[in-house]
Design a protein that fits this description.
It is a single chain. The protein has 418 residues and is an alpha/beta fold. It is 22% helix and 35% strand. The protein folds into three domains: 189 residues, FAD/NAD(P)-binding domain (3-Layer(bba) Sandwich); 133 residues, FAD/NAD(P)-binding domain; 93 residues, no CATH class. Strands 1, 2, 3, 4, 5, 6 and 19 form a seven-stranded mixed β-sheet that branches. A five-stranded parallel β-sheet has the order 8-15-9-10-11. A five-stranded mixed β-sheet has the order 22-20-27-24-25, with no helix packed on it. α1 runs parallel beside α8 and α4 packs across α5. It starts with a strand and ends with a strand.
Length: 418
């Protein structure tokens, strides 16, 4: 079976990519989703706060997903649910398997990777102690509570202040559980400020910064944990130990782009994001293979994931219809002082380029800084920011007139750093 565009992943990025590819002229489109329904992680995110940028209204996760699912149905875009992708080749052949059709191979003129991300587990952060039941990732607990109808525990501690962990602190409280505290290894929160206010402060749940777990107790079920303060090198400080009695521990300690397929395919990956390197069209290092959303870098807001998906879908459609301008020059974006990473990692300039949106994260909490774009030490663009935090993705837009005469390496960094 041959398709114009195949999208791997039916979450918000994949759905937006499929709709955009269709709107831009690609007609034979397939979405491959391993779950039994489209929508991805949105289906278990029953809280509101979605869609303010994309649809100009406040929606829950399922409501946001439903809007895109309705668009996909209206366009008669084909979907393969409960289907796993086993492999992808550079010539765009895809091996898939599902319970109904078994194993089969399909071909695509263009592929969009939208597999999303996964949570770091206890094994990834090496917490010492016993290995009892009652330790969950925050996302797994969210699915149990919101979709499966199971309460994960009564007395809960949360390690990590990522957004899912913060949201689950509120959710557990609303369901009658007691959240003792949220612990964060860093001296700053990893989540959005609005979630700290709405999910912790509003429910009098303490957030303990520069704090981690140094022991886990319990034979069959979790019985308690030892919590310690850490120094500037993230090492536990002796004498600061506090014992917490609890039956459940939720881990919200970071997300990792789901990139086994990307790696096997041989895409060039960025060690800063753990995702594929892409250009401003969301095209990877292999021509005709695009990537978007959390598989490229972890986002805060689903609206931005959909935005990247739309860009990838439009680019894939132009690729198969040969509606692309020839690349005139390439700019390589590199991060400097205070910046952790930038996406895209390169900009291919052609006559189509009007402006380029660059996403990034900062390395710490900063106030009254400027995001500077520099070539050979000379600032070519500067963007003032009152407040910057690692938990909130930053965006800048570079107009064509600022970059049209530039080629080679460009540094993005914070000005006003000591």
């Amino acid at each position: 079976m041959k398709y114009d565009v195949v999208i791997i992943g039916g979450g918000p990025g994949g759905l937006a990519a499929a709709k955009s590819a269709y709107d831009n002229g690609a007609k034979k489109i397939l979405i491959i989703e391993r779950d039994r329904e489209l929508g991805g992680i949105l289906q278990q995110c029953i809280h509101n706060g979605f869609g303010l940028h994309r649809f100009k209204e406040e929606l829950t996760g399922p409501e946001y997903a439903e809007k895109y699912i309705d668009m996909i149905k209206e366009a008669n875009i084909e979907c393969a649910l409960e289907t796993m992708v086993l492999s992808i080749t550079e010539d765009k052949k895809i091996a898939i398997i599902n319970p109904v059709e078994g194993y089969r191979e399909i071909e695509a003129k263009a592929i969009i990777l939208a597999m999303g991300c996964r949570e770091r587990t206890r094994g990834a952060i090496s917490i010492p102690g016993e290995r009892p039941a009652g330790i969950f990732t925050a996302g797994a607990a969210q699915r149990f509570v919101n979709m499966e109808g199971y309460m994960v525990g009564k007395k809960v501690l949360i390690l990590g202040s990522g957004d899912i962990g913060l949201i689950m602190a509120r959710r557990i409280t609303l369901e009658g559980g007691k959240v003792e505290a949220v612990l964060e290894l860093q001296p700053f929160s990893g989540g959005l400020n609005r979630n700290i206010v709405q999910c912790l402060n509003d429910f009098n749940i303490p957030l303990l910064l520069s704090t981690t777990i140094t022991n886990i107790k319990g034979k069959n079920r979790l019985e308690g944990v030892t919590v310690s303060k850490v120094d500037e090198n993230k090492r536990p400080i002796k004498g600061t130990e506090v014992e917490y009695e609890c039956d459940t521990l939720l881990l919200s300690v970071g997300l990792i782009p789901e990139n086994e397929l990307s790696r096997e395919l041989g895409l060039e990956l960025d060690p800063r994001t753990n995702g594929p390197k892409v250009n401003e069209k969301m095209e990877s290092s292999i021509s005709g293979i695009f990537a978007c959303g959390n598989v490229v870098h972890v986002h805060d807001l689903v609206d931005f994931v959909s935005g990247e998906g739309s860009r990838a879908g439009e680019s894939a459609a132009k690729y198969i219809l040969k509606n692309q301008e020839k690349v005139e020059k390439t700019i390589i974006l590199k991060n400097g002082t205070g910046i952790t990473y930038t996406v895209p990692q390169k900009i291919d300039i052609n006559k189509e380029t009007k402006s380029v949106e660059v996403c990034m994260r900062v390395s710490n909490v900063f106030k009254d800084k400027k995001i500077a774009v520099k070539k050979d030490g000379v600032t070519i663009a500067s963007f003032p920011r009152k407040h910057l935090a690692p938990g909130e993705m930053e965006k800048i837009v570079l107009p064509m007139k600022l970059i049209e005469n530039i080629e080679g390496d460009v540094i993005v960094e914070l000005e006003g750093m000591i």
